[in-house]
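ok, trying the design again with the full structure, not the truncated one.
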């Protein structure tokens, strides 16, 4: 019997919608599986997590949303947006999660916001597939994976830059709406990190019409004015309230922690100096694979650079961020995260149209590298878990306690096993479009998920300060009075207050402090010459497991 043909377009449209919906939800699930593992289940880790957790605890306890405080001292290094978000999430989840875990979920929130903004930006410029590809390029970057699961204010800056750039594609059709979105992104970046985001967008906005003629239109001027108007509340309200409360704290934040860190006059005091060759050593892996893809896009579309707005905006923003990084007197790896946004959009242009040979080589290299790393992670976990012989690898030993906890966690183990099977299926057997990029991103996410599920509990034994300060508690007399400290660094002071509620009187600031107890942090375990054994007697000493860089000693003044 002959079948009656169906109405043209009815069945395909329904099937196409189903395929697009399935593809979208699969993409969303992957982004969630990338961003969420590792955010909970461990204590605050040095460097940034320690002071951020203490600031969030203090902000939640005091309700002071204007001046961040850490271990009883004001901490004006950064504006408070990340602390606000972390404190709000931690408070909402307080019955379920510890404060540090709840606060760390703010990082996942800002990473998800950045991914959503990049997808929206790519979709507005070149369609939905381009937007998803740009997000895959962003998630494939080694630098984002290295920092995305830590408490880090740079992640809020990343989200702000992405949101701001997402507003740019509509500047001709809807200049006011475009400017409002750009200004909102600038404001988020400002309240996350200070003057960096406004400086990046201001320089880019100034250079676009100077370099490319298509931006010299009235609509662009309206977009810039709307962006300025939308950014002003973000740029003015918190600084104004801070200045009214304390001009000295405002000067500390604005002059020392913004201008001083960039120019260099406050770096000796605040730290994070920009040593020669820092970015040559680190920028290549932070931006891999976005930079090779971006360079390939520029080479392919070099003739279209004069006409395509995507290329013009992303190239100029990348140059501006790179120049700021190179000339800044302060440098840390997380500072380069904003560079990933324009590079990912540039790289997506070539990722969607790689040649067959390049696709095969890249996919094979991703399978080899990440498949091997995943296998080594499983082998190392099995060896440590079931072997009584010590693992004689210094690099591994430094990250593990001398006697790691060998209890099996069935849920984590099952999750890692299922993720491994699913990821290997995507990496080796299923071959969709952009298979190389997907293999790289999935393999990278798998390696982190395995490390988070299998090794983070062991790493937490070494990185956490809970155990070492808890062991000090019995040595504290019931009527100890004040405790002086010398050499106690920022992270350690924060964790002492976070875990034990102890705020020391720093001899660096109060040299005349008259306390019966003295807590000293020794570099490399060496007894400081400044402590007079005729005046002080050691009543406790301790260190984190496998840590030979820090040792703590508690002294009591002799009668």
């Amino acid at each position: 019997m002959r079948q009656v043909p169906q109405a043209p377009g009815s069945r395909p449209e329904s099937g196409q919608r189903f395929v697009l919906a399935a593809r979208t939800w699969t993409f969303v699930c992957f982004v969630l599986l990338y961003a969420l593992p590792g955010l909970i289940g461990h204590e605050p880790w040095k460097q940034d997590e320690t002071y951020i957790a203490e600031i969030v605890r203090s902000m939640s306890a005091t309700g002071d949303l204007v001046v961040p405080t850490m271990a009883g001292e004001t901490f004006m290094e950064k504006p408070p947006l990340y602390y606000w978000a972390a404190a709000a999430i931690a408070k909402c989840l307080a019955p379920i999660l510890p404060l540090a875990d709840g606060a760390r979920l703010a990082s996942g929130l800002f990473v998800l916001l950045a991914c959503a903004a990049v997808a929206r930006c790519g979709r507005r410029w070149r369609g939905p597939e381009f937007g998803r590809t740009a997000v895959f390029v962003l998630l494939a970057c080694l630098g984002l994976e290295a920092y995305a699961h830590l408490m880090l204010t740079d992640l809020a800056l990343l989200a702000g830059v992405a949101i701001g750039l997402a507003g740019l594609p509509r500047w001709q059709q809807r200049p006011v709406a475009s400017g409002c979105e750009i200004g909102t992104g600038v404001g988020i970046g400002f309240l996350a990190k200070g003057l960096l985001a406004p400086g990046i967008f201001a320089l880019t906005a100034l250079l676009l019409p100077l370099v490319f003629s298509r931006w010299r239109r009235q609509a662009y001027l309206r977009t810039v004015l709307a962006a300025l108007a939308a950014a002003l509340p973000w740029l003015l309200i918190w600084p104004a309230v801070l200045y009214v409360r304390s001009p000295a704290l405002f000067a500390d934040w604005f002059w020392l922690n913004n201008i001083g860190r960039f120019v260099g006059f406050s770096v000796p005091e605040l730290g994070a100096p920009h040593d020669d060759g820092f970015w040559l050593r680190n920028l290549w892996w932070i931006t891999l694979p976005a930079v090779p893809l971006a360079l390939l896009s520029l080479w392919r579309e070099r003739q279209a650079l004069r006409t395509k707005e995507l290329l013009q905006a992303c190239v100029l923003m990348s140059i501006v961020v790179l120049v700021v990084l190179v000339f800044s007197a302060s440098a840390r790896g997380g500072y380069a995260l904003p560079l990933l946004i324009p590079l990912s959009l540039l790289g997506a242009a070539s990722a969607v149209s790689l040649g067959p040979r390049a696709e095969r080589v890249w996919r094979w290299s991703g399978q080899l590298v990440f498949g091997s790393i995943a296998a080594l992670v499983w082998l190392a976990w099995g060896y440590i878990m079931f072997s009584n012989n010590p693992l004689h690898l210094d690099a591994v030993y430094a990250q593990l306690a001398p006697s790691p906890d060998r209890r099996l966690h069935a849920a984590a183990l099952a999750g890692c096993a299922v993720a491994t099977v699913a990821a290997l299926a995507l990496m080796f057997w299923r071959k969709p479009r952009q298979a190389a990029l997907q293999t790289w991103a999935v393999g990278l996410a798998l390696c982190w998920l395995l490390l988070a599920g299998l090794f983070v509990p062991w790493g937490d034994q070494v990185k956490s300060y809970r155990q070492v300060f808890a062991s000090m508690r019995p040595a504290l007399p019931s009527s100890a009075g004040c405790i002086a400290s010398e050499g106690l660094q920022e992270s350690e002071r924060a964790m002492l207050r976070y875990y034990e509620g102890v705020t020391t009187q720093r001899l660096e600031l109060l040299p005349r402090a008259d306390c019966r107890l003295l807590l000293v942090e020794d570099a490399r375990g060496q007894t400081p010459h400044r402590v007079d054994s005729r005046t002080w007697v050691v009543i406790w000493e301790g260190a984190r497991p496998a840590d030979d860089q820090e040792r703590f000693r508690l002294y009591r003044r002799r009668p």
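Keeping the full-length input from now on. The chain has a mean pLDDT of 89.
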